[in-house]
Amino acid sequence: MTNPNPLTEADVIKVASLARLELRPDEVATFTEQLGSVLGHAQDIAALNLEGLSPMAHPFDLENVLREDVVTPSLDRDAVLAAAPDAAEHRFRVGRILGEAP
Amino acid sequence: MTTSAISLAQAIAARTTTAAAATDAALSAITERDGELHAFLHVDADAARQAASAIDARIAAGETVGPLAGVPVAIKDNLVMTGVPTTCGSKILEGWRPPYTATVVERLIDAGAIPIGKTNLDEFAMGSSTENSAYGPSRNPIDPTKVPGGSSGGSAVAVAAGYVPVSLGSDTGGSIRQPAAFCGLIGYKPTYGHISRYGLVAFSSSLDQVGPFTTTVADSALVSEIIGGHDHRDSTSIDAPAPSLLEACGRGVAGLRVGLCSDLLDGADAVIVDRVRAAAAALEAAGATIVDLAIPELRLGLSAYYLLAPAEASSNLARYDGVRFGLREERDDVAAMNVATRTAGFGPEVKRRIMLGTYALSAGYYDAYYGQAQKTRRLITNALDAAYQGVDLLLGATTPTTAFGFGDKVADPLSMYLSDLFTIPSNLAGHPAMSVPFGTDSAGLPIGVQLLAPGRRDDLLFAAGAVLESEVSA
Fold it and tell me: Which residues constitute the domain of residue A20?
């Protein structure tokens, strides 16, 4: 790859934070190089003139698939909650979300 | 040599053997060899023996049983079964027991199949060698110093080692066809929407499809007919009748036009190119017309895929946040818990792809990367559609090389990604494709040739695949 790396270490740190991941300094360096090499390869399509082509999100044109508006069985609540790291009072339980009250 | 699923089911139905004997044979083969090969992450011997006894009892009572009654099968560990551990090869799901069963597994069980266990994979199906599994790699039974391919490597090993005649995998960019080629098996990726994704843990939802590994083309047809068809629980499932695949196996290729595609061939090892040309000659001898053609747009598939699949993955894998299932790393507040859980639970390849996808979708880069990749996906699909105006099928290599060694491509992810070059276009277009074993290299490692067909013409793959199969066994 002769292209300069399109990615900086600062980009990688920012992307990791958006993705809710924490990287060690050595990982930042490795990922910057590895992700840069994949993005470098992608320059072949970044440079194409694709005017007039519609973006394709899916193999075929999707329409909303609706069912009859009737009650049908769904997953058992207790079975679903049993697989959670923590549950209480029929709900998923997590730690504090907001800061302490003033 | 493995007995085919069809012959085994016939023998069990005719009571010349029993489901219990078939299950015991699978379990003892696993005990004997899977310490080395590591196809399985979880074997449920007691449940398998109980299911087999139940099938034998029904046969003894004269009841009608399904077409796979008593046949042991292996399931890739990204397909869920109620109460059976499902890890997706990731530490983030270690110990998770799903509260529901995938449609494909349910349909196999309804047909009488006996699930033996869950097979190894690259973490969340991201990889081409099983080296990205958090639980260690699987080994190729033909040469255990080589990878079995991936991501559905464990499922390929389970069949190639002769444990079971059938396994299920999933194919997002080649994850069934590439390990099938490396292990000498039939590997089939159906038309997108032909087989339900309900209960398949999502990697890249617009590309993922479930499909079987088998030793015969007819087994692949039977299993696909059993697990295929409309499922209201998958909103992308096609609600229309599909052509019979089993019937197609005996149809032959007389009158079909087959495109020998240089862009599914150039860059492959010479010995693989030779075998693809030999496959073209075999199809020609059976009455097909071979047309040499080029579809240069296919070369762009790799770049488009490695932006689109990570983009979808970055969204799909946001659900692993330590709240509803799997790992939680406790911290004082939820945001810190989310970060700590994901950082501890995901391996390096999954982190790479999540970050790549997050970057491609982020403000300022969306048009240049994700938008451009979506347009390239359209370009490739249009080019394939144009090619199918002149030919019925395309023929090329499944992989550029035969099975590679452990560690060969781990340090350079791009070199690993390049092994998917020939399999990616079918996923982007949503078209069906099949890898058929067609000889070996000088070291005896299997070579796969790849058949590609237009959407919803999966039957053509089985017609041509059966011809190639008869040529190899002749």
Answer: 9-46
